[in-house]
Amino acid sequence: MGGILSLFKRQAESDGQSRSGSTAGLPSIGSAVPCLFARQSEVVHAICEVEERQGTDVMLRVLRELGKVSLAGLPVGSSGKLEFANQLLPFRVVLVQLPWIAIGLAPEKARPVQRQFFRMSASFSVRFRRRGSERPWMLGKGIDVGNGGFCFSFT
User: Most buried residue among 37, 45, 83, 138 by CB atoms closer than 10 A?
Assistant: First the structure.
C-alpha cells in the first residue's frame, strides 16, 4: 500500500513498535468513523474518514471536530479511541498533518461501547416555532446536544 501512510510506517517501525493481530473487524477504506482524541486534558470528538489502512495502521482524514480545544497541535504519541462496529478500539497517534492523522490501532484491547447517549455540553441560542404556525418565535438557550436530540432552557 502506498501513499501517505507508507511514508510514516517506517517511522513507527523504527520506534520499535510491532503491530500484530488480526485486521478483521477494522474499518475499511472510505468508511466514516467517530474518534475521541485526548488533548490538553480535554476530549475532542471527531468524525474521520479512513483514507488508507495497512494492517492495524490507519490514515484518517478529519472531517469534523467538536470540543473545547482543537486538534491543531495534537502531539504524536497521544492516545484516543475509535468507534467501529459497537467496539471502542484504542489507538496511538503516529503522525499529525491536519487534516490527516495516522494512528496505530490496538484491536486486541477493543471493548464494547457502553453508552446509551452521546452528550456534549453546548451553549447556543435557539429560536423556533411550530411548523406552519404564525405565532411569534420562541427564544431560548441550548444547553445540551446528544444523539437523543437537543435540550433547551427558556426564560
Answer: 37
3-state secondary structure of 62: strand
Q: From first to last of its 155 residues, what are the pLDDT tens digits of the chain?
A: 455 554 444 444 444 444 344 456 789 999 999 999 988 888 899 999 999 999 999 999 999 898 888 899 999 999 999 998 889 999 999 999 999 999 999 999 999 987 555 555 556 677 777 777 888 887 777 666 655 555 666 66
Euclidean distance between the first and the last CA atom of the chain, given in angstroms as a whole number:
57
- Apex CA 74: angle with CA 73 and CA 75, to 5°? 105
**76 burial type by CB count under 10 A (0-12 exposed, 13-18 middle, 19+ buried):** middle
Cell digits for 55?
494492517
CA dist 149 and 79 (Å) reads 29
- CB neighbour list of residue 18: distance below 8 Å, 6 or more residues apart: none
- Give the pairing of strands 119-128 and 138-146: antiparallel
